[in-house]
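Entry 14. Ran structure prediction on the chain below.
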Amino acid sequence: MAKNTGVVVGLDIGTTKVCAIVAEKNGDGVVDVIGLGHSPSRGLRKGVVVNIEATVDSIRRALEDAELMAGVEIRSAFVGIAGGHIKGINSRGVIAIAGKNREVTRQDIERVIDAAKAVALPVDREVIHVLPQEFMIDDQGGIREPLGMSGIRLEAEVHIVTGAVASAQNIIKCANKAGLEVQDIVLQQLASSEATLTPEEKELGCVLVDVGGGTTDVAVFVEGSVYHTAVLAVGGDLLTNDIAIGLRTPHPEAESLKRKYGCALASMTRPDEKIEVPSVGGRRPRVLSRQTLCEIIQPRLEELFSLVDREVRRAGYVGRVNGGVVVTGGSSIMEGVPELAEQVFDMPVRRGIPRGVGGLTDVISSPMYATGVGLGLYGAAHRDRRKFRQVTDRNIFDKVVARMKEWFGEIF
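Output, structure tokens:
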């Protein structure tokens, strides 16, 4: 089996599934998907690792399938991260331009971004992404690429994504135990946006809603940049749980019913449509109307989309997302999801399917692979500045020591 020289691997470690996507750039610069592997996820809850050994086993199974399909040996990957611990904040940095003839250099851009991300964080949190929104030179705003421009003062507005150190370290630890080097950890909705959103949607302003099994990831794009991110601790698993309780059927059967017959709008089903519902305890299966199933699903999805709408309104971006809403993730496959979302958001909604890649397009053309494909695209675009994150027991300790030095410096 060939080594993975020239290929990029995206590893989506989700609450319900682990997905590995193997991609490579062809001669035309297009990213081709050449391998796919997935397995049920057993060690996560709401996007956070709760059982390391079970998670490692799921990762290994997905990697084996991906290696077999792609015919390469996988040694490293870009890994997605989500969970309720993820927080996003906007910040601004200002520096004096020190370049020759007062021209902005790469070092100036790095310095102003470092100044923008110098925010006070608790010792148990770390910065995952610093995403530039716009630059300003001497009060002239709206600049995307300031390199080479002249001025005296350079400002940058950025969106900073932070996460719990422990959660990030557990994700990295699971990948390492499965035999992988982690090239970088990537926010899942940022990865999904790489695969599902068009440049026009990002420029016009849009909301990406990635409905997974345990979490719903939200990203708001304004004028081509990320302005708001959030992770809600609700997802498709709640639908399955409601079906299991409402129809008195085992969870695996409830999941199967949701996938086969689920519909987000009960009005889209016919009253004469019947489904067979397995019972518990060896009792006979029952025959019920499909509308009964959909009447359980619809209120929960309405609640989920209402939470997202409330989050976007709270952040103050409703009037700036004229490109509408893009819903993706495994739970968006269900019939009627875009139609229900349109009613809740009161704006155009479409289902986000991976695009912009070649190769096994027929295999990955499903919203459930949006994050995995997006991680592959992100990795292909950022291969030259990969970080190779490691698990370090001294991470929190070093932060505490640095913070104590600051305190002593202020006192004495």
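Residues 132 and 158 are 4 Å apart (CA to CA). Will compare against last week's run tomorrow.
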